[in-house]
Amino acid sequence: MSEIVLSLKGLTRSYAVGGGKSLEVLKGVDLDLRAGEVVGLIGPSGSGKSSLLHCVGLLEASEEAALTIDGEDFKNASEAARTRARLHKIGFVYQFHHLLPEFTALGNVALPQRVLKRPLKEAEAKAKALLEQLGLGERLDHQPAQLSGGEQQRVAIARALVNAPRLLLADEPTGNLDPQTSQQVFEALRDIVKSQGVAALIATHNLELASHMDRVVSLKDGKLVELSKADA
């Protein structure tokens, strides 16, 4: 059985809503993700999917939760340790691609490598290999405005994976795409995640896509429940 990349135990999250009151969104969430596993995260709007992704991605802190990523303990971790993990261990893909408009596809994907002080030639070679793997070998020199929506999202996926993270977090990565393009982008994401042995957690409202993932978990009333494929 493949190794556990993410181990989360007892995640709670509350938000102040005024008048001295708070709203408890997550009520003791447990989740394990294994290398090469693609897990769908579903639930109604406002159920806490984004909050869960932010906590797992070390963008928000939860002092109560036990959280390890790639064997490293992040409970009460310093901001420096969290920042380092986001650079080396975690990749993010969002509903909107957030590509830099003045950079080419190659430049956008090479950028995270440059942040890690990799030489330009090495960074571009790695970016080129990933883009080719995602079917964009002919689009390396195109800026985001010259790419279709599906191509933009595949560039965003390549950028998220270029630093070889162990964990990929995606929040509605196909939410802005038509059904056919959505399926194509998801298949590209799934194939490259599995080829690299990355653990992926993908929040989506698209139940058809969720049914093609290895597992599906649902957030309801602050709790995480694993569903059968039939239930999803």
Automatic annotation (TrEMBL):
It comes from Asticcacaulis aquaticus. CDD domains: ABC_MJ0796_LolCDE_FtsE (cd03255). It comes from the Bacteria. Residues 6-232 form the ABC transporter domain. Belongs to the ABC transporter superfamily. GO terms for molecular function: ATP binding. This is ABC transporter ATP-binding protein. Keywords: ATP-binding, Nucleotide-binding, Transport.
